[in-house]
Design a protein that fits this description.
- Two copies of one chain form a homodimer.
- By secondary structure, chain A is of the alpha/beta class.
- Chain A is built from eight helices and eleven strands.
- In chain A, helix 1 links the parallel strand 1 and strand 2.
- In chain A, helix 1 packs parallel to helix 8.
Chain lengths: 233, 233
């Protein structure tokens, strides 16, 4: 087993339950890992400022990969600005094109926190993502469905690629990172870490990729994997 | 003792410790209160989107008073937009005037999440707030020092006034709200609730105002007050 020098965690469905409630066992586990000298990184589809609230409240020091790789920060708002990996103006143009080319029966409603999104445009799931992909087929964008919203993002970005950039800043080899996730959009993420863990509630294709599938779901699974592989219990 | 129909909690220093780490006892207490049918309201100087991360992760349903009363939401981003109680354009003008009238030795650095602030302008504490108050003495603004940043805000707004507006939406009489806080900027907040609680680490003038001062600090104090006055232990 490779030496674990950082722990990278997806948020929704991994350190939270399906209702997005934070697992108390996950909080305790993260604090135990941080106190042992191993930084914890949060890797998520959420915005930078939303995730910053969690880094501060839980106490993680490894930084954040947010907006599914579209943004990244090491410290948050004290020292560094958030780095944006997208041509936001281009994404905005694609969004305007989409609005002009939708038929009347399809209504777009932009998410209420769009003003906080730095690398993407997100709107409520009022239609199937395929309709949007068809309209934007000649644009260099990716359209994905997070379950919460539909997102137009830079097609060259994902959680894993941006995590590698954060690992460089942390001076940690991605091979020494243990990553834990639960869903389809964690496939790229786990691809880029050395130790790949899926919680018990993970999608089947993530379980297939994992080195270890937890017996327990969500935050209890995080605690299980950390006790097993970091504290060797 | 009046019947408690909602619990209103300050965040920093009340449900967190002085390093802004969320208290696990506070999370457990909040969830117990919510499960008993009593909504929990977060009352804070933080932004709407930062606080939304906490309402979602902890599981509060009473809504949020944010930016020290400058913003308010009941549900967050699913159903309602955040309501802003300030003339932001006027605040921006005051900020521009400040920038033009500062002497060279005083440098302003706007906070990195200013793009998420809807009712105020905040900048890092690179100078004494009194210098700013002097320059802006003819403007209808309030300048306060949150310990984290300096804020230019609407002078007619505070946590308590906005909490009353949220109470109206919740159809709860403020007299039936138990409020818990720790600092100077919770004075207005406790003024507007029926049951006023100060945690053990609270400032002395807040303790003087309180109906009850907890023996324990921060989240442990929240648990103590809730067990005593809501669950009558």
């Amino acid at each position: 087993m490779k030496k674990i020098k950082a722990l990278a965690l997806d948020i929704d469905g991994t350190i939270t339950d399906s209702q997005r409630l934070l697992s108390i066992n996950a909080i305790k586990t993260i604090r135990k890992v941080e106190n042992s000298g191993i930084p914890v990184i949060l890797v998520t589809g959420n915005t930078a400022v939303y995730t910053y609230a969690l880094t501060t409240s839980i106490g993680t020091t490894g930084g954040v990969v947010g907006e599914n790789g579209g943004v990244m920060f090491k410290e948050g708002y004290k020292n560094n600005e958030t780095i944006v990996f997208a041509d936001k103006k281009y994404i905005d143009k694609a969004y305007n094109y989409l609005k002009e080319n939708l038929t009347k029966e399809h209504q777009l409603k932009i998410v209420d926190d769009q003003y906080c999104r730095l690398s993407e445009v997100a709107f409520y799931r009022t239609m199937n993502a395929d309709i949007i992909r068809e309209i934007l087929k000649d644009w260099n964008v990716k359209v994905y469905d997070s379950g919460f919203a539909l997102h137009i993002t830079d097609q060259n970005i994902n959680k894993g690629i941006t995590l590698e950039k954060l690992a460089k800043i942390l001076k940690i080899n991605p091979d020494n990172i243990m990553g834990i996730g639960d869903s389809e959009n964690d496939l790229d993420f786990l691809d880029h870490v050395g130790i790949k863990i899926a919680v018990a509630n993970a999608s089947s294709n993530l379980k297939e990729k994992a080195d270890y599938v937890c017996k327990k779901p969500n935050g209890d699974g995080v605690m299980e994997a950390v006790e097993k592989f970091i504290f060797n219990d």
